[in-house]
Amino acid sequence: MVAGAKKEILISIGELHISKNPTEVMKATRVASSIVVTVYDPQAALGGLVHMGLPDSRMATGNNDLPYKFVDVALPHFIESLAAKGLNKQYAVVNIIGGSQLFNFGGGSGNILNVGTRNAITTRTILSRNGLQVAKTDTGGNKPRTVQLEMDTGQVLISFPGQVGHYL
Amino acid sequence: MSNPALLNQIVQILDQLPDVPVVALEVNRLLDDPDVSAQDLADVISRDPSLTSKVLKLCNSAEYGFSRKIATISEAVSILGQKELKRIIFVIISHSLLSRPIEGYALEAGALWENALTCAVYAKHIAKSLRPDNTKLADLAFTGALLRDIGKIVLTHYVATHAKQIEAMAVANKLSYAKAEEMVLGMSHTDVGRVVAERFNFPQTLLSAICYHHHPGKMPDGTNKEIRDMVCMVHLADAFTMLSGEGLGVDGLMYPLDEAVFDQLNIGRDTPFFESLYNDLLELRGTINNMNQMVR
Fold first, then answer.
1. Is the Cβ–Cβ distance between B272 and A59 less than 8 Å?
2. Phi–psi pair at A83, nearest 5 degrees
3. pLDDT tens figures, B75-110
4. Which of A21, A38, A53, A16 is closest to A148 using CA atoms?
5. What is the ipTM of this complex?
6. What residues of chain B have any CB closer than 8 angstroms to a CB in chain A?
7. Which CATH number applies to A7-167?
8. How far is Cα A53 from Cα B48, in angstroms, rounded to an integer?
9. How far, in Å, CA of A167 to CA of A157, rounded?
10. What are the residue ranges spanned by the domains of chain A?
């Protein structure tokens, strides 16, 4: 998938990456109920990807060695870090990807595991609060995604198991 | 199981699988025999250098925390005891069987194994959290979760040509992917898992996890409480593993949560409980990576 001199940066749940290096491809695999936000500013040639697993850090009653797995902790930090590197919010292309769910055939208690939907909602709220407009979203469904931000163009490639990837 | 011709083909495929860990399976069988001595077990394990090295590596891992290095297989067998040895043997068996590419489910090499190991570590954590006094239950849940999807290694040959049809069946009729496999192919990966487990002489508890991990509420009346608890824990661990995205294939998250787990495990239906538990499980990534390194 990645040709020639491109450098793949893998970003797991609880991690983020920001760069101005056009040879990088930021890649989040296994994006199921977790949520990925990609940001690309073509003027500054600056991009970033953050991969988050849970909406609300108040749920961390046990260990919390990976604080950036929470949307409410990771996303504000991600936005601040991008701003420090010169992000112009006016030009920023922001996308939200992920937030898949288990099958839920209505009724019952399936909704208690709707962490994917809650991740997507919290993400939208925090982006909006920080003055970032969302360009495109690809959220929900019952399949895991692989997400790649190609830093030479700012394009975002999404693929599902057994399917050819498509650009968002 | 409604398709005898398919069943026959499944057994043939199973008998021709490459990389079947024959010595480890033999050790598993021997561990059920009360007359087998530690030396007999050590002799059999020693026939397979790769198995020997993996047992020693696992036995010397931080998880066991022995104060000195275990250097020989005889020593490992006697110091671990039969129960722990069995758990290690199952880790090795599942690593051998699940690490191959499972193309029908669009799982690259290693993906199904990582999914299994994640689910096993999650199931053990859930068991320890909900029933802290019952270590046996935690071990059963670990092994049950590890091998729950063993049927996929054979059914993959059929899913490969019918994946779209199975998915369409599941979506249109609001069925779990496993139920849709059964409707389209005549057998689900849990049905095939039963065949594999019987062929390889897996214990009864493991069979329950394999057969009912997608719908623990359908376990036969009279199933004892410990097995019911264990299968419900595996079901819950499976749900969290799907949410985590670890090693998912074409069937993705296409399985619903079975309502039976709430009453069986006596847990509430509240989001904070589940998200707090999920946080704890996501924190286990280091444990999972360490175990993965150990068995390679």
1. yes
2. -60, -40
3. 998 888 888 888 888 898 899 999 999 999 999 999
4. A38
5. 0.94
6. 105-107, 163, 170, 174, 176, 239, 242-250, 252-257, 259, 262, 269-272, 274-276, 278-280, 282-283, 285
7. 3.30.1330.200
8. 41
9. 4
10. 7-167
